[in-house]
Amino acid sequence: MGIVSGIVVYLCIWWVVIFTTLPLWVQRDEGGPEVTAHGAPKDPMLKKKFILTTIISAVIWVGVFICIQSNLIDFRAIAAKMSETDYN
Fold it and tell me: Residue 10: what pLDDT?
């Protein structure tokens, strides 16, 4: 895996993980001002969630990197088989 493809894979993993961590530890702000939306969180803890997302994404990325480098998942062979298949 090259540097650019590694960064792209990491960013894709990071975006998926951030959307799974955003709902964690959410408490609704019941007594907030009138301009606040009804479902708005009291304290979204975004810094904590970004740090957690970065750590989880790094661990997942290392696993993906190891799978690709050790040829457990051979994307070139998969692409070659797909190009051989006649879809007509």
Answer: 96
Stretch (H or E) spanning 33: none
Alpha carbon distance 26, 5 (integer Å): 34
User: From CA 21, how far away is CA 41, in angstroms rounded?
Assistant: 14
pLDDT band at 7 (very low <50, low <70, confident <90, very high): very high
- CA distances from residue 38 to 15, 26, 27, 32, 60 in whole angstroms, order as listed: 26, 13, 11, 9, 35
Instruction: Classify burial at 81, counting beta carbons within 10 Å of its beta carbon; exposed 0-12, middle 13-18, buried 19 or more.
Output: exposed
Q: What is the pTM of this model?
A: 0.72
Per-residue exposure over 43-68, b if at least 16 CB sit within 10 Å of its own CB, e if not: eebeeebeeebeebbeebbeebeeeb
CA-derived radius of gyration, the chain: 20
